[in-house]
Write a structure and sequence with these properties.
This protein has 139 residues and is of the alpha+beta class. The protein has a single domain, classed as Conserved hypothetical protein from pyrococcus furiosus pfu- 392566-001, ParB domain, CATH 3.90.1530.10. The protein is built from seven helices and five strands; from the N terminus they run αααβααβαββαβ. A five-stranded mixed sheet has the order 1-2-5-3-4. Strand 3 and strand 4 form a beta hairpin. The longest helix is centred in the last third of the chain and has 14 residues. The protein starts with a helix and ends with a strand.
Length: 139
């Protein structure tokens, strides 16, 4: 039985619903870690600060759900097409400042062909500072 995306966050494991748990997993995740699709779904929802079940971007949810699991990798930015996005320079500048100050950022989410599912602004900001980016890759 397929879950309705709007309610998926409420049907997921209790740990996955917790912002503290998601943040702990992001900060505690290591390259090579594999997580289920439900984690990535809730992770993206958390990053968009939309925890009231109003995750309405059907295309985004569908793209995440294409893969049963995601693996955290250090991905060369040369493997990602950043030119396909119309990026807001203010958001990129904000992310770049945070990355410069903290050295940290939420990993982006890509499919198995390294097309960005979520995190285009983060990817552009990181590309201005580094050659690689942390990414959850659909497997």
């Amino acid at each position: 039985m397929r879950h309705i995306k709007t309610y998926k966050v409420f049907e997921a494991n209790e740990r996955l619903k917790s912002r503290a748990y998601l943040e702990q997993c992001w900060h505690g995740a290591e390259v090579g870690d594999v997580v289920p699709e439900e984690y990535i779904y809730n992770y993206v929802q958390y990053l968009h600060d939309d925890y009231e079940g109003a995750f309405v971007d059907g295309d985004l949810g569908d793209r995440i759900e294409e893969f049963g699991k995601y693996k955290l990798v250090d991905l060369s930015l040369s493997e990602i097409d950043l030119d396909e996005f119309n990026i807001d320079d203010v958001s990129v500048s904000d992310y770049r400042s945070i990355i410069e100050d903290t050295g940290d950022y939420p990993p982006i989410v890509v499919d198995d062909e390294y097309r960005i599912i979520d995190g285009a602004h983060r990817a552009v900001a990181v590309s201005e500072l580094r050659d690689k980016i942390r990414a959850w890759v659909g497997i």
